[in-house]
Specification:
Layout: H1 44-49, E1 53-54, E2 60-65, E3 78-85, E4 90-96, E5 102-107, E6 113-117, E7 127-132, E8 137-145, E9 152-161, E10 226-230, E11 236-242, E12 249-255, E13 262-267, E14 280-282, E15 290-294, E16 302-308, E17 315-322, H2 338-342, H3 346-353, E18 354-359, E19 362-368, E20 374-377, H4 379-382, E21 386-387, E22 394-395, E23 409-414, E24 421-433, E25 438-446, E26 462-463, E27 474-479, E28 493-505, E29 508-514, E30 526-529, E31 534-545, E32 550-557, H5 563-571, E33 576-577
Parallel strand pairs: 1-3, 26-33
Antiparallel strand pairs: 2-9, 3-8, 4-7, 4-9, 5-6, 5-8, 10-17, 11-16, 12-15, 12-17, 13-14, 13-16, 18-19, 18-23, 19-20, 20-25, 21-22, 23-24, 24-25, 27-28, 27-30, 28-29, 29-32, 30-31, 31-32
Length: 601
């Protein structure tokens, strides 16, 4: 994660903790447990450090990572801590800092790995773990930084909540979050950051046989759409679905969600405690998820459907269940009329051609290059990215789901009236260039499964001239940065600057530098040169010097697009400037051609 400079701190500590800016008395320490209690499975780093410092519920620590601290095998410094918890208690850990990118690790009794987290805390780069203790005993925490070269001060807060019961008051906890089965929030992804795998883990159930079921928002009935809102401090809303005898399936869907939500389902009375918490789940990049539950013979008749909110904002939604009929379809895309596109000025056209790409890992950006739906973006938006050097090249496979299939890539188009994009389509990866962090996608069908036919999309012209953008040229970055998120939605954002430098490799430009802001979510979007609004680069990375707090933004020049990609895009109507395809007599569109007209050989 390329951490940002701003970190949002809450006005108060975590539930059961101390208020921000206050100190709490530390109970007398009984001393560390015996060294042999660390467990035979402990790593060499833990064996060397031992248990570390004890954590007490409700006490916030402030410590500093330095060059003298022990390091993990990836050379990142860490501090070790331990605490005691009873089975069924809810463990809450938060690590906050504006100097390092916090990273938390949690190990249970016998040193088994339980959870890790990078960016689920209240600030954009703070870490948070919430998990139900699977057993009684001593737990170990590693307070770590995501980047090996970072050093600085952090705060660590630890809270224990008692296992909830339907008969106990205050079941939501002091912050209003439901103590439900542990769900790891997906990590936010910054420019140049390869996404991590996301999914529900089979954590020990917080609702074993005989325990009270969690409160619900009400019962869902076919043909009756209900509305709800998951608060900023909530994690999940439960709804009850009761199936009549003879009914062996149901489908539930979200509608008009104001942000990204997921759906999960579990029998009201779990078949067996400790088995995967949610046997059915829909966790794609869609805001309005659909989830189908198919029962085996004699299966449970009462089900809990959960609406999961990973975001620290309040998100509204509507929900509907269906038994024998399909749910209402997704909204269909209504392409603008050709005369409307022709009347757009170059910048308006670039805005319409900038799309949002959503995956189970989060969202980023892309740019439409052809009227039939080819999209240029970063490889790290659709694939794992392990950096191969200072030029931010990637190594890693495409993002895949639990079945090993490529994840669904949901495409949203700019909706100027709403500010945020509207999701309509699904794309697939057709070409990749990981060494330069580039990928080419093609929109294949809409969210209802209907294939895309015809030239229906606005697209942007591409300038492939070796010096298509020069030092001092005015440029603009278009994309969907996460930092701009309000009320659950991420609006399209435009930032302006100049081309401030570039990096050469083998006499070829491989990186463009700009002072136009590039934030998490801008990745894969458009770097355009003004006033023509031609595409000259793909916003990709941000580098921060944590000693001086200087920041440098990078984009990939479109001149890196391989010849084979160019030929493919040209055959589908892309507009190119500064490129003379082999066997063509013309390199640029005619001088009087509109900015979006494809070049003709």
């Amino acid at each position: 994660m390329v951490a940002g400079l701003a970190v949002w701190l809450l006005a108060a500590g975590v539930a059961g903790g101390v208020a921000s800016g206050q100190a709490a008395p530390v109970p007398p320490d009984a001393g560390p447990p015996p060294a042999e209690a660390l467990g035979a499975g402990a790593s060499p780093e833990l064996e060397r450090v031992g248990w570390g410092e004890r954590l007490w519920p409700g006490v916030r620590l402030e410590r500093t990572l330095t060059v003298h601290d022990p390091r993990l095998d990836d050379d990142t410094p860490f501090h070790a801590y331990w605490f005691e918890a009873d089975q069924g208690q809810v463990i809450i850990l938060e690590m906050r800092s504006d100097q390092v990118d916090p990273y938390l690790w949690l190990f249970g009794p016998d040193a088994q790995f339980l959870a890790r987290d990078d960016d689920s805390g209240p600030g954009p780069y703070d870490a948070r773990i919430r998990l139900t203790a699977p057993a009684s005993g001593r737990y170990q925490v590693l307070a770590n930084t995501a980047l090996s070269w970072q050093r600085g001060t952090y705060q660590l807060a630890f809270t224990l909540e008692e296992a909830w019961s339907g008969s106990e008051p205050g079941w939501r906890g002091e912050e209003g979050r439901q103590p439900t089965p542990s769900l790891p929030r997906p990590p936010a992804r910054g420019p140049g950051e390869g996404p991590s795998a996301r999914g529900l883990v089979a954590a020990p159930s917080a609702n074993p046989r005989g325990a009270a079921t969690p409160p619900t928002q009400g019962a869902l009935q076919p043909g009756l759409r209900r509305s709800g809102r998951v608060g900023a401090t909530e994690l999940i809303h439960f709804w009850l679905v009761e199936l009549p005898e003879g009914q062996d399936r149901f489908e539930v869907g979200l509608f008009n969600a104001t942000g990204p939500l997921d759906l999960v389902a579990t029998p009201e009375d779990p078949v067996e405690p400790g088995v995967g918490d949610f046997p059915f789940k829909a966790m794609t990049g869609r805001e309005n998820e659909r989830l189908e539950v198919v029962l085996e013979a004699g299966g449970p008749r009462r089900w809990l459907v959960g609406v999961v909110n990973w975001e620290p904002v309040s998100i509204g939604y509507e929900i509907e269940v269906a038994f024998d009929r399909p749910l209402p379809p997704y909204p269909e895309y209504k392409p603008p009329l050709p005369q409307v596109i022709a009347a757009l000025n170059p910048l308006e056209r670039a805005i319409r051609a900038t799309v949002q790409i959503s995956t189970p890992e989060g969202s980023a950006s892309g740019t439409l290059l052809t009227p039939d739906g080819f999209i240029l973006t970063n490889y790290h938006v659709v694939g794992e990215c392990r950096y191969t050097g200072e030029l931010f090249g990637c190594e890693g496979d495409l993002l895949r789901d639990e079945r090993g299939e490529p994840v669904e890539l949901v495409v949203g188009l700019a909706h100027e009236a709403r500010g945020a994009a509207t999701q309509y389509f699904v794309a697939e990866v057709v070409r990749t260039l990981p060494e330069y962090d580039l990928a080419l996608l093609q929109i294949t069908h809409d969210l209802n499964g209907l294939p895309v036919r015809g030239p229906i999309f606005p697209w942007i012209p591409v300038d492939l001239s070796p010096d298509g953008v020069r030092l001092g040229d005015e440029v603009m970055v278009l994309g969907y940065p996460a930092i701009a998120q309000t009320a659950g939605r991420i609006p399209l954002s435009l930032t302006r600057g100049i081309l401030s430098g570039f990096t050469l490799e083998g006499g070829r430009r491989v990186l463009l530098q700009t002072d136009a802001a590039i934030e998490a979510g801008h990745s894969g979007g458009a770097l355009i040169r003004l006033p023509e609004a031609r595409l000259v680069g793909v916003p990709s990375d941000t580098r921060i010097d944590w000693e001086t707090f200087e920041k440098q933004n990078y984009a990939r020049p479109v001149s890196l697009i391989p010849e084979e990609w160019r030929q493919l895009l040209r055959a589908h109507g892309a507009t190119f400037f500064g490129w003379n395809p082999e066997g063509s007599e013309a390199s640029d569109p005619p001088a009087d051609a509109p900015a979006g007209s494809p070049a003709r050989p």
